[in-house]
Write a structure and sequence with these properties.
This protein is of the alpha+beta class. The chain contains three helices and ten strands; from the N terminus they run ββαβββββαβββα. The protein folds into two domains: 79 residues, Gyrase A, domain 2; 76 residues, Alpha-Beta Plaits (2-Layer Sandwich), CATH 3.30.70.
Length: 168
């Protein structure tokens, strides 16, 4: 679905979750940072883009590694004494939304202040979309991505399409 005012596309989401054990956070972050070759986001909601990878801090000890489409997964060996990793990609899809009308369309389905510093471009916000947990990744002034559970993808994309009526 696309128009000059709003567009929505849906794609698979290559996503890996890594998490530190409570008592090993410092060691875990040092090891993961060295493995990925970049600094990690410092606080919840921050993101770091490195090569074909977006690193998102979704909780104090948890990071999501979102890969660009068709990008190979980074070589990742998490020491089980420091933390764990799990692939989440099979259970999630990525909605890419863009257009001048995006703030109005999103206001029909999620409770995020598009103009708040916590939702500024480059930030991530966990929110709820009709009682379904989603992650909003603000990618630009008039664009974002939503990472949503695959089992709800059709109904949520239909909801967005209904909310965009008049923008398309």
């Amino acid at each position: 679905m696309a128009s000059p005012d709003f567009s929505l596309s849906v794609s698979d989401c290559l996503l890996i979750q890594v998490e530190a054990w409570n008592e090993t956070l410092g060691q875990f972050e040092t090891s993961l940072s060295a493995s990925l070759g970049t600094d990690l986001p410092a606080s919840v909601g921050e993101t770091v883009h490195h090569e074909n990878l977006l690193i998102i801090r979704v909780a104090p000890r948890r990071l999501w590694l979102a890969l660009d489409d068709a990008a190979p997964a980074p070589p990742l060996a998490v020491d089980p004494d420091l933390g764990c990793s799990a692939s989440l990609g099979e259970g999630r899809v990525r909605f890419s939304l863009a257009g001048a009308d995006i703030a109005r369309v999103l206001s029909t389905c999620i409770a995020v202040d598009w103009h708040a510093p916590t939702a500024a471009p480059g930030r991530a916000v966990h929110t709820s979309f009709h009682h379904v947990p989603v992650l909003l990744l603000r990618t630009g002034e008039a664009s974002c991505e939503l990472i949503v559970p695959r089992s709800f993808a059709t109904s949520l994309s239909d909801w967005i399409a209904d909310g965009s009526y008049g923008a398309i």
